[in-house]
Design a protein that fits this description.
Layout (H helix, E strand, L loop, with lengths): L4 E3 L6 E3 L14 H20 L25 H34 L6 H26 L6 H21 L6 H55 L5 H32 L3
Antiparallel strand pairs: 1-2
Helix pairs in contact: 1-2, 1-3, 2-3, 2-6, 4-5, 5-6
């Protein structure tokens, strides 16, 4: 008895019912591959949403992102600012990985020998991972504040640029007006330079605190290895805890790099 004919969703021709079209070779049911395609499209839509115009809204401190790690000698507010920026970089790398794996899963679903069940489970796991990453990204991007050191450096650049412009038009201004403006700018620069000295001391203390915290994480990682090797914890517990420690270390190292870059800028002044 001949198989009933159905319309191929890829080439549009009527062909015998089955897994694949006998004309174009594409799957006759695109349900599984569409799940992965939807995940990929959803990612791009969400990135567009989160990278839209910024709005100046005050955020309840209770809504600020939480971090498991506590940096020695660094106030929690400053740590949130530093680590939020560092984790966003890590998170964007993770989202890139999710998309790459999604594309690979989508391509695998097109193969005749593909295990649809396994690939569908993988697609759902990727979707769940993506949703968690998307939610965390929303939590991180609400942090708009900057570190005091960064703000001081930006203000110094701004006032020095004002002074340079003023010098450039000095010959076109009334002498008293020129001196008045020059004095005001120089006073602002002097006050910022005084604040910068204190901010550098604080920044160096924070940098040392991050290094000490990284050492503590390294010890915790070594302790975890020991517990696994002597059979105190399961492989599943070991792998999940190790992944958490490695991710936390990457975020801390990103924060350390950003702080060191700011401190390096102060040496050029």
């Amino acid at each position: 008895m001949p198989k009933p004919l159905i319309e191929c969703p890829s080439c549009g021709q009527n062909v015998p019912d089955g897994k694949y079209c006998n004309l174009c070779g594409k799957p006759l049911t695109l349900r599984d591959s569409q799940k992965v395609a939807e995940l990929e499209d959803s990612f791009h839509d969400q990135v567009t949403e989160t990278e839209g115009p910024e709005t100046d809204t005050s955020i309840d401190p209770a809504l600020l992102p939480h971090f498991d790690v506590t940096i020695q000698d660094m106030p929690s507010e400053a740590a949130v600012v530093l680590l939020s920026g560092a984790e966003l970089i890590v998170l964007d790398e993770e989202l890139d990985r999710i998309i790459d794996q999604t594309k690979a899963t989508r391509q695998a679903l097109q193969l005749q020998q593909a295990d649809k069940g396994v690939l569908t489970v993988r697609a759902e796991a990727l979707r769940e991972e993506f949703e968690r990453a998307k939610q965390r990204r929303h939590e991180l991007i609400v942090v708009k504040e900057k570190l005091p050191l960064e703000t001081i450096l930006e203000n110094l650049d701004r006032h020095e640029a004002r002074l340079s412009k003023l010098e450039g038009v000095a010959g076109t201004l009334d002498k008293d007006v020129y001196e008045e403006q020059r004095t005001e700018i120089l006073q602002s620069i002097k006050a910022l330079q005084t604040s910068l000295k204190d901010a550098i001391k604080t920044g160096n203390k924070w940098s040392k605190g991050i290094k000490n915290t990284l050492k503590a994480l390294q010890k915790e990682s070594s302790r975890l290895d020991a517990k696994f090797k002597i059979g105190d914890i399961s492989r599943e517990k070991y792998e999940s805890s190790r992944a958490r420690l490695e991710r936390g270390t990457r975020i801390l190292e990103g924060g350390q790099k950003r702080l060191d870059e700011l401190l390096s800028q102060t040496k050029k002044r």
